[in-house]
Amino acid sequence: MTESCVSSSVSWISNIAPLGSWALVIVGWAVVRRDNNRREERKEIKAIVDSAIERSERLQDLGRRYHVSPSSSENEQRAAQIRSDLKRLGTELQILHVATAGKISASKALIELRQRITGGSFDSAERQAVLDSDPLLSDIDDAVFELHRALTQKFASLPR
Amino acid sequence: MTIRIASEFSRVPAGRMRTDGPFSGERFRDDFLIPALKRGDQVRIVFDGARGYGSSFLEEAFGGLVRQGLFPVNDLERRLEFISEDDPSIALEVKGYIKNEAVRSS
């Protein structure tokens, strides 16, 4: 390598050196921004997961109270609240499904919960109140537990 | 043909049999679903807009439709379309009732 060639290489490096430090700054900024966005997104998803869990616990309570109580106008209001909460829970789960590109999906658990609480003689004139020891109530508890498990497990597996 | 449950039937569909109330699954099936299936080829059911559904209503309307035996199951599966954008699990549940009842009756 001739002397002139070496000196032109050195001058070329000294010319682009400031650009390299700028590139590092830009890459660093992009990494921090991506991490911040991911953290914010995760927080938003966690808030919906928490809301869905809270709603399912309210449904568990409403469902148990509905089934152990005899027919009355108060119980009819409970039934309407159950249908409405199930709808809202379904919407929350759909938002989670879309926001996580299908990584959080709990449709099966929701169907199971809806069937446990509102299947059989729900909303029926023939319905009889059940005892506290009735297996239906444990089935409701199990369905709520399964929904919690599906949501928390899938949330935990999201990239951090 | 499209049936929008919330605007054409009720915003509060509830109950299994007619004796359970005016907006039961039995009434929806007999007065809306079956006539629509007899009239048209494709029947689209829109679940959105109602204040929620109980499984007793859904099972009686759609599982009951298979139990009635008026239409072959594969015909129903081909002709019925379910729209439930707010909560797609409703459509999945209804398809499950049709399938379960087909298995039970075969």
Describe the structure.
- Chain A is mostly helical and 160 residues long.
- Chain A has helices spanning 3-68, 73-99, 107-118, 135-156.
- In chain A, 79% of the residues lie in helices and 0% in strands.
- Chain A is rod-shaped, with a radius of gyration of 28 Å.
- The relative contact order of chain A is 0.12.
- Chain B has helices at residues 5-9, 25-39, 55-68, 73-79, 89-105; strands spanning 2-4, 43-46, 80-83.
- Classes of the chains: A mainly alpha (160), B mainly alpha (106).
- Chains A and B meet through α2 and α3 of A and α3 and α5 of B.
Ranges of chain A where pLDDT stays below 50 over 5 or more residues in a row are: none
Number of strands of chain A: 0
Specify the biggest β-sheet of chain B. 3 strands, parallel
* Structural Rg of chain B: 12 Å
Kindly state the percentage of residues in helix of chain A: over 70%
Mean pLDDT of chain B: 94
What is the mean predicted local confidence, pLDDT of chain A? Answer: 91
Question: Roughly what fraction of the amino acids of chain A lie in strands?
Answer: under 5%
Helix content of chain B: 40-55%
Our estimate of the beta-strand percent of chain B is 5-15%
Task: Give the number of helices of chain A.
Answer: 4
Multimer state: heterodimer
Using the alpha-carbon principal axes, give the shape of chain A. Answer: rod-shaped
